[in-house]
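Q: Give me the 3D complex with flavin-adenine dinucleotide.
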Amino acid sequence: MEPWDVTIVGGGVLGTSVAYWLANRYEGRIAVLEKEVDVAAHTSRRNTGVVHRPFYLDPVGRKVFARCAQIAYGMWKEYAASRGLPWLPVSTFEVATREADVGRLEKYLQWGLANGMGEDELALLSEGEVRRQEPQVRSHGAIWSKTDTAVDYRSFTQSLSDDAVAAGAKFLLGNDVASVDVAGDRLDIHLADRGGYRIFNDPRRKILVLVGRGNEPHRTRFLINCAGGNSIDLAHRLGVGREYTDLFFRGEYWEIDPAYHHLASRNIYTVPRHPELPFLDPHWIVRADGRREIGPNAVPVAGPYTYRGFFEDPKDLATRLLGFPLRNKLRLLVNPDFVTLAAEEWASSISKGVMAKRAQEFLPALRVKYLIRPGTAGVRASVVDRGGNFVKEAIELPGPRSYHITNYNSPGATGAPAYAAWIVQRLARAGHLDHLKPKTAKAAGSWDFEKICAAIETPAS
Ligand SMILES: Cc1cc2nc3c(=O)[nH]c(=O)nc-3n(C[C@H](O)[C@H](O)[C@H](O)COP(=O)(O)OP(=O)(O)OC[C@H]3O[C@@H](n4cnc5c(N)ncnc54)[C@H](O)[C@@H]3O)c2cc1C
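A: Here is the predicted complex, encoded as structure tokens.
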């Protein structure tokens, strides 16, 4: 069988967005290999569901995330309206729970404006102003991000996958990539169960139907690795990114009894104590369907799909902590802040009371009994460099007949359609898409590829 022209591994919001742009811009055989039986089965559904406005992102240190979040806000807003998907502009108060954090709020105001937010979208609030609007919230002041919005990224991703299929991409679901070999001018991708493609049959969705092909490998001329929590492992298999390793942190949520939803009507975040570490204090979240939750914490776990417990087998944790490359992790394990915070996060996982106590810091009226059931946990895969530091931006790594995107963390769901356009442009500029024939017609819908890419490249004001 003819090789595929481009294969994307991973049908999360990122891989699906890349497929959307490729299929809309090029003729050719474009496939998404996804190990689950639908898109957005992992982090792209198991998240806080906020379209984050970029006031808290350093316009220099986190430029790409900040630019993409700013551009994609308008894209998602328009997309939600055109497809009838949830869009609830609840807004966010990011509060200073310590006097010393008030200066940080002022910095956030400058960052938000530098990242392109409008003056009317942000306001600094005194303690009294916070209390007038959210009487139960205690703080030393806040920044109010008025356009933060609650959405459902799973429905966004599903809808985008339908659009990608309509433009010609094929989603080959239920295919777990086990290994990849370079074979001359193409790659041979071996699937875990060797069962070939499965059929996904949902009459409401247009998504893929392909028939199994036995034990033959899936052949492709180019691979784009968007495998989320598995992306580093997949890159390592092609000899790429061996200077990096990753660690996994599960974010857990608790649903609040509806009788206490009135405690706050907006998202309430707090200024993080250690912005360089992936530990955020749990927030009060308003979901797109009106539910309120507390979370997420950031509990170190053994793998990208450890949604319960800490590891399936103690060996898994040892392998994860002591596996290759070891030096990155050893450097981190001697960082006292990391070790202390990790212990606190474990405590909040084991005890609901500890979780409630963390939220009481800004919402003292909250009681443990208001946390009625666990919400849907998600796992963040954070990449650690040779110095033992968590990397702040997404990492893009070229490899043999392949391109690897890893460390694509929050606010990755917010920025995905913009970031994916930029990735497609980078691949085209590097000649990796020369074997595809450009489409002459403009992409369906009103997202403008050239404008989006130019806006990402524009220096911050
Ligand atoms: C707790 C938490 C809260 C968050 N909240 C927000 C938020 O409010 N707003 C925001 O913007 N961002 C948020 N994020 C970040 C955001 O969810 C991620 O940046 C985004 O979902 C990443 O998308 P992805 O497509 O890269 O990864 P994923 O959604 O994980 O997709 C990767 C896909 O690859 C597939 N895959 C993996 N290995 C293989 C293989 N071997 N073969 C085939 N398929 C494979 C997986 O099944 C998966 O579907 C949050 C993240 C977490 C963890």
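A quick observation: The chain is about 30% helix and 20% strand.
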